[in-house]
Structures are given as C-alpha cells and as structure tokens.
C-alpha cells in the first residue's frame, strides 16, 4: 500500500489540524436523482434546519453578533475613549473595579473596560481577514492541485509541506520581527498568519476536490465537454465547500488567539493601538498583585475564540450527520 | 521497509531545503546590522567590522551564504557560531533539553488525560458523562495558552501555595526538576488534550461498531476483554500516530508557555535572538525544528505499519 | 482454575423431551429515533442435536436479529427483548446472568458470520484469534493453544496451516477466511452452531466447498446447525427442516421435503416460485409483488396481506396463528388448505 500519511499536521497552535480530520466532504450525491445542484442545496438547507435548533449555534451567533457591533460601534458600550490620553490617570493605577470603572484600572491608570471594548475591533478584523486570505489562497491552490493532479499536484503538495514544517507561531514571530515598523502592524499580522495558515485549507480543499471529481455527475460533465473553469466553479466548488467552511470558522477563532499571542510577544498589534494580547502583556508585570487587568482581556479573548469554535463545531455536526 | 525509509528521506530533502531557505531569507531581511549590534553602543572600527563581515560570509550573496550554512549543518553537524563566538550547537543544547522536557511532559499528559477522557466518553456515549467531557474539550480548545497559562499560574501555582503552604506546582524556572514542568506541561498540552479526547472518543466508538467486535463478543469473551483487547488495539492506531506527530507541534508551539513560566527553552531563546539579531541562532533553531517535524512524520508512518498489519511499504 | 461452562449452566443433560435449542415466542424491538422497530414478533423454532434447521426469508425479516438474540450479542440498547424464551437444554438463556451467558456464548453455542473479512480482527494473526478461545476459555498456555489452532486449521482444510497461523486475515482468500471463521467457531466443540449466510460473500464454487465442510463437521460432532440463507438450492441439500420468516414471524415451518412438495403459506409459495427452474426456461420469473413491510408500522392482521394473492377480508383484521398441519409442520395462514391444494 502506498503512503498512509495520517492527516495530522501542525496548524496554528490553537487550531491544530484535527479539526480537519473530523470533517469529511459531503456524501456523494445519489446517482440518478437530479444530483447536479440539488445535493449541495439540500445539504445546506438540511444543515440550516438543523443549526437553528442547536443551542450552541444560537449562543455562538449571539456572541459573535455582539462582538461585531462592539467592533463597529465601540462607543455604544462605553463613553470613555481609551485613545484619549486624558482618560488615563497614573495615580489610579490598578484601582479595583468601581461604579465608574467596572473592570478597574490598568498599570497606567487607564479604564480596563473601555480598552477591552475597543480591543474587540482588531481581534475581529485580524481574525476575519486572515481567514479570508487563507481560505482564498488555500482553496484556489487546493482546487487547482486536486483538479489537475499529476505534476502540478505533486509540486504544490510538496510546496505546502514546506509551510507545514515551519512551526507557525515561531514563523509568524520571525516575519513579525522582520517587517515590524515597515508596514502597518495589523496588515503585518494578517500577512504573517496568512502565509503560514493557508496550507491547511489547501489540504482540505484538495482532498475534497479529489473526492468530488470522481463522482458521476462530474465525470458526466467532463464527458460532455464542459471546460475546466466551469467544472471547478459549477461542480467542484459547491461540493467541496462544506469542509472548507467548517475549518474556516474554527480557524477564525484560532487566528484571533494567534493575534493575541503575537501581540503578547510584541510582534503583533503595536501600542498605542489596542489589542487584548497587548493588554495581557502589559498587565503581566504586576499580574500577581493585580490579576484583574489581565483577567478581563483574557476572558474576552477566550469567549471570542470559544464562540467561533462553537460555531464551527455546530456547523460541522450539522453538515456531517454521521458524526452524531 | 528500508527502501521506503530512504525514499521518504529523499522526498523530505526539498521540504527541508525549502523551509530552511525560507527562514534564512526572512532572517537575512531582519532589520539592522548584526555587526553593529555586536558592538552595542560603541561604533565599531570599520576595519574590524570588515574582517568580521568576511569571517561570517556577510558580504557574499544570500544563496552562497545559505550554502555555507546548510552544508556545514549536514556535512559537519556544524551550526555555526554566534557573533559572540559561542558555537550555536552548544548554546542550543540546553535550551532544546528544556523544551524537549516540556514537550514530553505535555505529551505524557496528553496521552494519559486525553486518551483516558476519550475512552470514558466513548463508553458512556450519549450519556451525561459524555456530554460533559465533550463540553470540556470545547473549553480546552477555546481557552488560549496565553489565558490558561496565567490563570493556572495564579490559581494552582500562587494561590494554592498560599493556602496550603506547599509548593506543589512551581510557577517559574526549572530549578524544581520535573515538577517544574507539571503546570507548563499541562498548559502546553491543553488543546492537544482536547483533540486527543475527541479523537479517542470517535476512534473507539467507531471501532466498537465494527463487525470483529461482534465476533469477539460471540466468542464468549468478557466485555472487558472485548473492549480492552480487540477494540482498543484497533482504536489505538490513529491515537499513537497523532501523538507521534504532535511532539513536533508541541516543541514548535512552546514559546508562549515558556514565556509565561520563565522556562529557558528554544522558544524563549528564539524570541531573544530575534531581538539581538543573532541570525545563526535563529536559523539553527528553526532548522532543528523542521528536522524534528520531518523525522516525527516519518516515525509516525513507520509506526502505522507496525500497528496495522494491513499496511506494507514496498 | 478457570470455570467451565458446566459450572455455571444449571441443567446439564437430562432435559427430557426438550430439543437442544428452542426459541419460543421471541420478540425483539429496537427503540430508535424514528420509533420502535419490531424486528422479531413471536418467533419459535427448535433444533436438535445433529439436525440442520434452515431459516429462510427476505432481507429484513429478522433472521439475523433472532440469531443475535440467541447468541446474546444484540446491542442493548437499542434492542429490547420484551417477551419470549430461548431455552438451551431446557434452561432459558434470557434468564441467566451476564456471566453465565458469557460461558454459553462461543463455548456451547457458537456463530459464524457472513463477511469473514470484517468479522475477523485485522490486527491479530489468525492463529492468535483461534487460539484465544483456548487461552481464555480453557486456560491453555500460548504454545499449546497455538498447536490447537494449527490442528483446527488443518481440520477445516486450510493448506499449509502450520506456515499460515501467523498470517493476518487480509492475507487469505475469501473462502479461506470463512474457513478460519469456522475453525474459530468450532474450537470448543459447541453443541449449537449458527451460520448466518456463511457463503453469501463467496463465489459459487467456494460456496459449495464451505457448505460441504459445514455438513461434514456437523456429521462428525452432531452439532445442531441453524443455517440462515437465501439459497434455496443449498437448503434442499443440507437442511432437515425449514423455517420461513416474514416480518419477524415464522410463517411456515416444515420438514424440508414437505415444503418442496407443496408449500402451505402464500409467502413460501412465492419464494419457491421465484427460483429459476430449468424446466420452465423462457417463462417470466415470478416475483412477489409489493414492498417488504415497514417494521415501524406493521400491517394489521396478517403482515403479508398487502402482498397476498389469497387475501380475504379477515386477513386484514385477524392475525393468523401458526396452524398445526401435522406434528412437524405449521403454517400461519388462514387459508393454508387452499395454498396447499394449489
Ligand atoms: N440496531 C438496529 N437498530 C434498528 N433496527 C435494526 C437494528 N438491527 C436490525 N434492525 C432491523 O431489524 C430488521 C431485521 O433485521 P435482520 O438483520 O434480522 O434481517 P435479516 O432477515 O437478517 O436480513 P438479511 O437477509 O438482509 O440479512 C431490519 O429491518 C433491520 O432494519
Ligand atoms: Mg441477516
């Protein structure tokens, strides 16, 4: 038998690729029935029907919606502007929570609550855009590799191996340190995580396309002389989308955690910009006497990551009833 | 088998070259002049600096520098010297030991807790225990090391010591021997524990539905033997391979944990070296990690063949 | 000392007129999300030492579920046995403790399955799997048990048994794998052997060899054999009597010759008519019309009535009991006389 490499590879530390192991391409459509587009459509509508009944899914959607509003209109949640230096008062550093400052004050005497609220924006932006970048690059290359097979496939698969071999956080740390200060720090974080994150999507997309490509209706379309572009777009993409979307959702949470880690290591978002990772890094120096300024951003970070992973879990279960 | 190993090693060469070259290029692009950094605040004598530049091949084209480096590593096991003239291998040996200890501790915890919880859940599938275990894996996956590290350090390290007076879980450094790795090991293992729990659960549950399990029951074996011998032996295959591949991940992902618990491992070293622009150290660390990744995957493949007789490498 | 089954099973010998194994009014239900699947609804059959009972019936009629109930290898839940007895030498197996049950399973009543490739454990050698019976149940040493395994593989005529004990199941051909399955099941000289479609997965020539082997082993050891099959040709050759199942019930049971002479149930008649026959070559093959019953919602009265050419009004309302036709024969049809006369 040939190479049985288990599909366990390193991912970003918070989202190891196991997520991908439990995701399979949707079951092949029944031959005969109007399989063409009917299958993906009913797959999604079944999944949607199922999802609306899952408390975990509903909970995660609510949390994510709140986070989105928080990042778009943070002033709805707090009247303090944390970017305004006058809002901080060193003499009140590490003050315990009070009516005016419900999360207390940090090492510089700034309001923790306001900073935590404003910190959501960078997390969401970085999470969403990194996911878009990795999903786009990974899917595109994965689709081409899976569809073309042969040399194209062999070369691109080896090429992605290279990225798997580099420990993601260390790689991102290097990229961050190298280009820090030369480009906008948020774009830098997205780029660093994107460069190291796309191979996972590549693998999943490639596997899904290889499965889909050998199904009857695709073979039929090819026999009828449909062009490569049309086959990929009309037939392969809809049938390979499910696992990619599941992994994208779960990874989004992972990227948010990774952003915090990079900011914590001071190669991510740079002060005076606000990030939960930065807040944790700042608070750690006096952490043992005053744990609250570290605790609140940590809690927000965890809940955010949890929401996306819960959502991904729910979507995966809904799309793959076998796993129940 | 031997031929398979050789073929796999040959296939790994482009990966190794690609990954190290990539790192080399990035590190080369690190801002600032390493020779200047070496002299700190003093301005170096241009002549001395030039000699140093020649000595470290800094004036050669990038690809040539890469060749000097990589051939040194593989032909002479020479990872070069730092700009302070300490051999990189000497500097890194102790650091790797710390990270390896940490990763091994995490691996052991993963194996014990992850497999244990997974088995428990699989045997109680659909019951409250199963649901509770699944919910806890969700938490373990979602709480980033950055958070779990500090929280556990505070609660299990500091507070527990204040309450009980006993230093059960040391919170920083390596002076307490293996106990020093307990807390950081758990923190590092967190996500993997959750994944392994889920993997064990699905793997065993799937195995227990297999026909040969029904046969084993029909042979009149006790439930204990059916599950423990016939089921587990098969369910184990993906678990062992997951664990094997995870060693590399853990070592490469330890930087946050090392930072929180003040462990002098390679993650910490890399972090420092990046700031000191010690390019040979940075490249050395990543090269070794890439090698570990490649070897771990090879070992996993071979382990597969040992565990599953249906797989043969020819 | 290992306990032998004799220590646990209360009645040994002296079970009077009782046949070796008697299934009596057995009911099995599966509680699923969709509702209660009534897979077995009052099955009774018996088998004596040295006798072969063939169980026939279309897919889903509950043949395997009945067999699994006898072995006690149904998954509980979802399976529930609300009613019925399974008497082995007079002792109701359903009333035994799990421990006592384990002592019967495999040692006194054994079973072989349809697909030997999936029924054998892929990661253990065949020798290990056969010898496990001796190690676990007889407390033999590894080496002795292995010797026994080789003997058994010889007995089921696996060529070069000694060289092949350490091979894995996937290294054998389908027929050889089924022989290994058989060797494993007869390892401890069971008194009853249940063979659930033992040849369905094999090609025709191999099928005949396996049936021959089973028949021969049975002659030697005087086991009671319950043979579940779709192959009416095989039945005529090896079976002593036949039980025909439909929708989880026995619709007809009879000595094999009686049935071939003239079935006494419309369903049996349909089954026999659907065998291709040389003398009727060229004519359309008969097929029982209609769909198999929905076990979630069984038809009222006789479960076969929606498909029955002999149907009368009372078939829709009255459930036919198993009418005794002769001492050894029964039919669950209100109009068995008409069927028999045709
Ligand atoms: N675990 C289960 N859960 C729900 N229903 C089940 C289960 N096992 C069996 N059944 C149902 O019980 C019915 C009888 O199944 P059984 O396997 O006994 O049929 P069979 O007569 O052996 O058919 P075949 O000839 O195909 O082997 C089937 O309709 C099946 O769907
Ligand atoms: Mg069956």
Automatic annotation (TrEMBL), chain A:
GO terms for biological process: transmembrane transport. GO terms for cellular component: plasma membrane. This is ABC transporter permease subunit. SUPFAM superfamilies: MetI-like (SSF161098). It comes from the Bacteria. Belongs to the binding-protein-dependent transport system permease family. It is a multi-pass membrane protein. The chain crosses the membrane at residues 57-77, 124-147, 159-179, 185-205, 240-258, 294-315. It is found in: Cell membrane. The lineage of its organism: Bacteria, Bacillati, Actinomycetota, Actinomycetes, Streptosporangiales. The keyword Transport applies. It comes from Nonomuraea phyllanthi. The keyword Transport applies. Residues 14-23 have a biased composition (Polar residues). Pfam families: BPD_transp_1, OppC_N. Residues 1-38 are annotated as: Disordered. Keywords: Cell membrane, Membrane, Transmembrane, Transmembrane helix, Transport.
From TrEMBL, chain B:
Pfam families: BPD_transp_1 (PF00528), BPD_transp_1_N (PF19300). It is found in: Cell membrane. It is a multi-pass membrane protein. One of its GO terms (biological process) is transmembrane transport. GO terms for cellular component: plasma membrane. Its main location: membrane. Keywords: Cell membrane, Membrane, Transmembrane, Transmembrane helix, Transport. InterPro entries: BPD_transp_1_N (IPR045621), MetI-like (IPR000515), MetI-like_sf (IPR035906). The chain crosses the membrane at residues 12-30, 98-120, 132-156, 176-196, 239-261, 281-307. CDD domains: TM_PBP2. It comes from the Bacteria. Belongs to the binding-protein-dependent transport system permease family. This is ABC transporter permease subunit.
From TrEMBL, chain C:
SMART domains: AAA. NCBIfam families: oligo_HPY. It is a peripheral membrane protein. This is ATP-binding cassette domain-containing protein. The keyword Signal does not apply. Gene3D superfamilies: P-loop containing nucleotide triphosphate hydrolases (3.40.50.300). GO terms for cellular component: plasma membrane. It is found in: Cell membrane. GO terms for biological process: peptide transport. InterPro entries: AAA+_ATPase, ABC_Ni/Peptide_Import, ABC_transporter-like_ATP-bd, ABC_transporter-like_CS, Oligopep_ABC_C, P-loop_NTPase. GO terms for molecular function: ATP binding; ATP hydrolysis activity. Keywords: ATP-binding, Cell membrane, Membrane, Nucleotide-binding, Transport. Belongs to the ABC transporter superfamily. Pfam families: ABC_tran, oligo_HPY.
């Amino acid at each position: 038998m040939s190479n049985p490499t288990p599909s366990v590879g390193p991912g970003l530390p918070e989202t190891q690729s196991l997520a991908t192991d439990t995701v399979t391409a949707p079951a092949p459509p029944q031959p005969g029935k109007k399989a063409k587009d009917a299958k993906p459509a009913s797959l999604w509508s079944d999944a949607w029907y199922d999802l609306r009944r899952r408390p975990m899914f509903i909970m995660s959607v609510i949390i994510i919606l709140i986070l989105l509003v928080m990042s778009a209109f943070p002033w709805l949640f707090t009247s303090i502007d944390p970017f305004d230096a006058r809002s901080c008062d060193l003499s009140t550093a590490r003050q315990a929570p009070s009516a005016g400052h419900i999360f207390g004050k940090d090492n510089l005497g700034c309001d923790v609550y306001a900073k935590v609220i404003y910190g959501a924006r960078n997390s969401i932006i970085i999470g969403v855009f990194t996911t878009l970048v990795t999903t786009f690059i990974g899917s595109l290359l994965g689709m081409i590799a899976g569809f073309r097979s042969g040399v194209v496939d062999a070369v691109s698969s080896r090429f992605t191996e290279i990225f798997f071999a580099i420990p993601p956080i260390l790689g991102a740390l290097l990229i961050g340190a190298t280009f820090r200060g030369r480009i906008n720090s948020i774009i830098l974080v997205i780029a660093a995580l994107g460069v190291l994150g796309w191979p996972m999507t590549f693998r999943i997309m490639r596997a899904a396309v290889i499965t889909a490509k050998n199904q009857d209706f695709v073979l039929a379309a090819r026999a009828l002389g449909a062009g490569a572009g049309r086959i990929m777009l009309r037939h392969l993409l809809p049938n390979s989308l499910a696992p990619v979307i599941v992994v994208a959702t779960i990874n989004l949470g992972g990227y948010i955690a990774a952003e915090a880690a990079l900011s914590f290591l001071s190669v991510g978002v740079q002060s005076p910009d606000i990030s939960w990772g930065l807040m944790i890094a700042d608070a750690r120096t006096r952490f043992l006497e005053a744990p609250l300024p570290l605790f609140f951003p940590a809690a927000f970070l965890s809940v955010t990551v949890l929401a996306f992973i819960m959502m991904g879990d729910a979507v995966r279960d809904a799309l793959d009833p076998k796993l129940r | 088998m031997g031929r398979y190993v050789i073929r796999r090693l040959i296939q790994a060469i482009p990966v190794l070259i690609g990954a190290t070259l990539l790192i080399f290029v990035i590190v080369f692009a690190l801002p600032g002049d390493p020779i200047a950094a070496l002299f700190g605040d003093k301005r170096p004598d241009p002549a001395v600096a030039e000699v140093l530049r020649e000595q470290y091949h800094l004036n050669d084209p990038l690809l040539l520098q890469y060749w000097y480096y990589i051939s040194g590593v593989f032909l002479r096991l020479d990872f070069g010297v730092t700009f302070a003239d300490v051999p990189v291998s000497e500097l890194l040996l102790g650091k790797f030991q710390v990270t390896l200890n940490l990763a091994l501790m995490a691996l052991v915890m993963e194996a014990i807790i992850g497999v244990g919880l997974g088995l428990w859940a699989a045997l109680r599938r659909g019951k409250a225990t199963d649901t509770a275990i699944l919910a806890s894996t969700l938490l373990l996956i979602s709480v980033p090391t950055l958070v779990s590290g500090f929280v556990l350090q505070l609660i299990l390290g500091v507070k527990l010591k204040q309450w009980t007076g006993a230093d059960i879980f040391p919170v920083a450094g390596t002076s307490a021997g293996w106990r020093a790795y307990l807390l950081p090991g758990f923190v590092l293992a967190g996500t993997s524990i959750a994944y392994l729990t889920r993997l064990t659960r699905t793997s065993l549950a799937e195995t227990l539905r297999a026909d040969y399990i029904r046969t084993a029951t029909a042979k009149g074996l006790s439930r204990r033997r059916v599950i423990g011998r016939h089921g587990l032996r098969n369910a184990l295959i993906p678990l062992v391979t997951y664990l094997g591949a995870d060693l590399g991940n853990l070592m490469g992902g330890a930087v946050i944990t090392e930072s929180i618990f003040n462990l002098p491992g390679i993650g910490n070293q890399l972090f420092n070296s990046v700031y000191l622009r010690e390019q040979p150290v940075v490249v050395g660390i990543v090269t070794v990690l890439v090698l570990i990744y490649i070897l771990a995957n090879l070992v996993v493949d071979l382990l597969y063949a040992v565990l599953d007789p249906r797989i043969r490498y020819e | 000392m290992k306990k032998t089954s004799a220590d646990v099973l209360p009645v040994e010998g002296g079970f009077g007129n009782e046949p070796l194994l008697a299934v009596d009014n057995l009911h099995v239900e599966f509680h699923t999300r969709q509702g209660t699947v009534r897979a077995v609804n009052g099955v009774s059959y018996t088998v004596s030492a040295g006798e072969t009972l063939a169980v026939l019936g279309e897919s889903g009629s509950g043949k395997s579920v009945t067999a699994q109930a006898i072995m006690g290898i149904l998954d509980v839940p979802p399976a529930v046995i609300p009613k019925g007895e399974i008497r082995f030498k007079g002792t109701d197996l359903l009333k035994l403790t799990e421990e006592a049950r384990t002592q019967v399973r495999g040692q006194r009543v054994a079973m072989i399955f349809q697909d030997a490739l999936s029924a054998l454990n892929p990661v253990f050698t065949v020798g290990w799997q056969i010898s496990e019976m001796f190690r676990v149940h007889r407390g033999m040493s590894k080496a002795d048990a292995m010797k026994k395994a080789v003997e058994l593989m010889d007995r089921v005529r696996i060529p070069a048994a000694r060289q092949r004990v350490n091979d894995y199941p996937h290294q054998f051909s389908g027929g050889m794998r089924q022989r290994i399955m058989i060797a494993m099941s007869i390892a401890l000289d069971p008194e009853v052997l249940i063979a659930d479609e033992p040849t369905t997965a094999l090609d025709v020539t191999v099928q005949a060899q396996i049936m021959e082997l089973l028949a021969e082993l049975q002659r030697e050891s005087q086991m009671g054999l319950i043979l579940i099959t779709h192959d009416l040709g095989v039945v005529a050759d090896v079976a002593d009597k036949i039980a025909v199942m439909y929708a989880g019930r026995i619709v007809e049971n009879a000595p094999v010759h009686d049935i071939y002479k003239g079935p006494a149930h419309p369903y049996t008649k349909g089954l026999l008519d659907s065998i291709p026959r040389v003398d009727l070559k060229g004519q359309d093959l008969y097929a029982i019309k209609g769909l198999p019953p929905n076990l979630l919602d069984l038809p009222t009265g006789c479960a076969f009535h929606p498909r029955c050419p002999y149907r009368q009004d009372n078939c829709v309302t009255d459930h036919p009991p198993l009418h005794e036709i002769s001492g050894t024969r029964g039919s669950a049809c209100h109009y068995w006389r008409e069927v028999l006369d045709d």
